[in-house]
Predict the structure.
Amino acid sequence: MHIVVLGQGYVGLPLALRAAEAGHTVVGYEPDRNRCGRLAAGSSYIEDISSARLEQVLKAGSYKPSSDPDDLKGFDVAVITVPTPLTDRAPDLSCVRDAGTVLAERLEPGATVVLESTTYPGTTRDVLIPLLEQGSGLKAGRDFHVGFSPERIDPGNTTWKLENTPKVVAGLTGACLARVKTFYDSVVDVTVPASGLEEAELAKVFENTFRHVNIALVNELAKLGHLLNIDVGNALDCAATKPFGFMRFTPGPGVGGHCLPIDPVYLSHHVRQRLGETFRFVELAQEVNERQPLYVADRLQSALNKRSKCLKGSRILALGLAYKPGTSDMRESPARHVIDALTARGAHCTVIDPHVGDDTGLRVSSRLTADQLADADAVVVLTDHPEFDPQLVHAHASYVLDTRRAIPPGDHIEHL
C-alpha cells in the first residue's frame, strides 16, 4: 500500500520505517525542513532509529521524507502522529487540525485515515472527521475509512518496540476497523480491536493516567517517609515481593516526556468541559508531580544547611538532563525544572549528560570525572544514565542527593 505518516518524531519515524520495511511505499511528511533534510541525507535524530536503518529504506526507495503536501496525494492509508501539547494548561489540537486539513484536500474515495496522536475521547469523531468531510466533500464511513490507534512508543526501551507491543485499533464502522486492522497487522505482531473510537482514545489516556497517579502516590510517600525517618525504598522493595495485587512505582524528581505531564490533563480537561465534573485523582496527581522538582531543590538546600553551607554560591553537579535513562529525550524533563530552581536560588549548576547536546543554554558536559565530583559542594542525580559509574560517584562526591536510587548507600548519600 501507499502509506503516508504525518509527523516524523518519536512516534511517526519508527512507524514510517517499520511500514517501509514491511513492504509498503511510505512518505514521511515532516513540515520542519531541517528535519526533513536530515532524514533525506540518511541522518536519524531519533535514538531508537539508527542512521543505518534509515539509509536502508532510503536506498530501497520504500521511504521518502517530504515537506511537500502534494507528495501525500494518492495515499491508501494516512496516519497522523503529530504533537498534542498543552497551551495555557488546555489541550491544543492545532497540529491535529492542520494535519486533517492537509489530508482532506488530498483524500480520495476508499482511502483510510488513522489518528495516533494521544487526545481526549471524542477527538476523532468530533474534530478530525468533520475536517476531513468538509475539505474533501466525502462522507466518513461511506466514501472513506477513519480509525484511531493510540501510539505506545517507549523511547529507549529495547525490549518492547513498535512491532512487538500490542496495538489497539478502532474504526468508525466495522468496515473502517477492518481496514485499520489490516494495515497494522502488516507492521505489528498483535492488534487488539476496541469496541469504538472513544474506547480506544480513553484506553490511551487512562494508561498514562494510571502511571501518573501512582507515581504521585509514591512521590508523596517518599516525602512522608523522609519526615518519619523511614527508608521508603526498602519498604517498596519489600512490598514488591508480593506476587499478586501490587505493581511497583518508584519516587523521582517529577515526571517527564509527552505522556505523563500532558496526557492526563487532556482527560481531566475534557471531563470538566463536557460534564462539568472534576477528575480529582488526575488533578491531585498533577499538583503533586508538578511540585516535585521544587521539593528536590528544597531537600538539597536543607542538606547543605545541615553541612553549614549555603545553596547560594554553591557548586552543584547535576547528573542527567533527559527525562529518562539512556535517551536524549528532554520533553517536559523534571531535571530541567530542578536545575532552574537551584539556579534561581543562586547555585552554580553544571550538568553532565552523555546524551544531550550543548544547545540547552546550560553548562553541559558529556563525561563525568572524579575531579568534577570532588570539586562540587553537592551532586544531585536526576537521570540514572547507564554511563554514570555509581562507584565513581560514591567514592569522590562529598554529598549526593540521589533522586533515582542509583548510588549505593553511604553516610554521604541521601536517597529521595
